[in-house]
Amino acid sequence: xxxxxxxxxxxxxxxxxxxxxxxxxxxxxxxxxxxxxxxxxxxxxxxxxxxxxxxxxxxxxxxxxxxxxxxxxxxxxxxxxxxxxxxxxxxxxxxxxxxxxxxxxxxxxxxxxxxxxxxxxxxxxxxxxxxxx
Length: 133
What we know:
- The chain is α+β, with helices and mostly antiparallel strands.
- Helices cover 27% and strands 23% of the residues.
- The chain has one domain (9-114): Aspartate Aminotransferase, domain 1 (Alpha-Beta Complex).
- The protein contains three helices and six strands, in the order ααββββββα.
- It is globular.
């Protein structure tokens, strides 16, 4: 049995089931509405929004939740996000729609446009991050 792969964000969301699909669609709408200058696409198999080629935010369906990831989220100095990985990323996981706080997410999206680390050039800088904004 082959695994279905989405070519665009609506296709990715359509592959999800039940409340996870609702969460993904809600996040897509919030990101599109609040990041009007961002480009969005499937990147490494998951929906991601970019500003000037730099990844800002995305989400992915995990086994038991939907993970929203802010690439520069550890620098937001905001409660509610958990550090993820060895760089500056931070995440929030959702298991039901009632956990999706649109005001909280809008606040983080505002911070994401102001506070950015240069992930686009991380390879060129040999794994070193530089703050952009």
